[in-house]
Predict the structure of DNA topoisomerase I.
Amino acid sequence: MFELARLAGIARSSDPFVFSLVKHMNCVYICFFQMPKKEESEKSVTKKKTKEEIEAARTLKRKLKEEEEQQRWWEEEKYEAGIKWKFLEHKGPYFPPEYNPLPENLNFYYNGEKLKLGLRAEEVALYFAQMLDHEYTTREVFRNNFFKDWRKEMTLEERMLITDLEKCDFGEYHNFHKQKVEERKNRTKEEKQVLKEANQKITDEYGFCMLDHHRERIGNFKIEPPGLFRGRGDHPKQGLLKKRIRPEDVIINCSKESHVPEPPAGHQWKEVRHDNTVTWLASWTDNVQGATKYVMLNANSKLKGEKDWEKYEVARQLKSRVDGIRAQYKDDLKSKQMGTRQRAVALYFIDKLALRAGNEKEEGETADTVGCCSLRVEHIMLHDSLDGEKCVVEFDFLGKDCIRYYNKVPVTKRVFKNLKLFMENKQPGDDLFDRLNTGMLNKHLSSLMPGLTAKVFRTYNASITLQQQLKELSNALLNQAEKLLSYNRANRAVAILCNHQRAPPKSFEQSMANLQAKIEGRKEQLTLAKAELKKAKKEAKGNSDTKLQFVVEKKKKAMQRCEEQLLKMEVQATDREENKEIALSTSKLNYLDPRISVAWCKNMEVQLDKIYNKTQRDKFAWAIHMTEKDFEF
DNA sequence: GCATTTACTTAGAATCATGTCT
DNA sequence: AGACATGATTCTAAGTAAATGC
């Protein structure tokens, strides 16, 4: 603690100081009080600090403050059901800057003719021009949607004239944008510093709120800037104009007795309400989807953390009841009720394959994706036998975010027979489970166990898989790199189960080749080191000269170091290769009970920051604090 | 009962910052 | 010291599930 204070520039090791322990809300704070310094010592010790040092001290001070503010909310008492807070105060959301018109000399051309666009048409045209390098702008749906909405922003004259997107030339706008990006990249250190400080100021003012007695970080305090809607996959609304949000669109939620945030000058909020049964601080309706967007707290907050903890506790409860539940749905496969059988098969998939529930969606409003309950006949193929296995179901469908789920799974005879039955006399586009939806499924699940829903199975199966895999893949005898590889592999098993994919990084091939080259280089070095060692040994043999023995020892150490480094790189290469198209972060952040990882680190003597970065450690502070070696999920 | 609305979690891509190498 | 790669952070879309409205 003193060390931190010293680094922060608020204390020097030569400074006299006192500290006291302050207990507040079950949390012990250490408070420093610096004693007044004497004049002479001041002069002799003081060295002119450079700008950087001052800045570094400042950020450290801030960090210190944040750490002190970190509350052990998990040791506090909980409110009655449904109440999320008793006091909430904040500054309202931060609005993006107004549109800045393009320089006069920039031109837009229609059909080869120069054309000066009005401000509104220009702004929306620029949104499109900025995206020209993106594949989006070549898609028919995107172009049509953009053009339709763009024309709405035009003056009558503009609209009369501009009737064909193909005849539009946004070239100068596009180049202007590219130039801006370039300039941004080439900013000097000083410019970057100025911008950083300005940003920090905004975060300091708008990025925090007071929730009960705690100062909490807000997750998304910035209003989403206007632009063109970028839906995922084959989204029917891609390219539509996402309009600028004004204070008049925003609902503020805060305490009655708090200082209500001021709307930007000349504006008013849509509404100010005081609803302490919800966690959001502000909300607005998005014009593209008609969905409500919320300003909420950061993941390290009490409200989010408590919910997260609760989620894993429910999943752990499932662990102790899952055998009975499985027996039940296996039994239900034989039910006389078609609905019950469909429910049983759906549950079998959700449990075995960690599929999502699959709510129904409004047709034409979103991309065509499905989950378990919304699977259609066309999404599965039945094989009586395939690759030497019997009763194989071949899945091929687009799930959340249009990520393809492709899997060939052997199932029990009874499940297989049921699927055949469900598919009888149906068209490819018909629902596989026509007598089932997520509401019915969840209602049934909650009758089996309080709090049980379809997604609890995903959480449970993910966490239990991590725990099992860690047990299987790692042991205390492995070296550090191997331990981490085993952790990543356990994590990877979960990511594969949950179908968390990513586009391979752009530079993947290159970086793989680079690493491979490094490995080759190291290998040669190792051969050399081995030869030298051999030589040294030979020379030292039968010779009691301590100098020669010393040389042998030195060569041996060099060889070993080389070997270690080689191994580390090889492990890294393996890890990277296996991870090419798999995203680990989603499962790490949302599905894996952090207590499993914390306990594993303790048992394996692996530093926690090897598996969780700072943000993740903040998010999982509750787990880090409460988890012992013997934790079992 | 259902469709709709609301509130919240989960998701991958894009962007930004930092560390490493030359 | 600049280029580049990598990891961290930001962004906001897209899910789940419960409440509400009719």
In short: Confidence is low (pLDDT under 50) at residues 1-49 of chain A. Chain A has 20 helices and 17 strands.
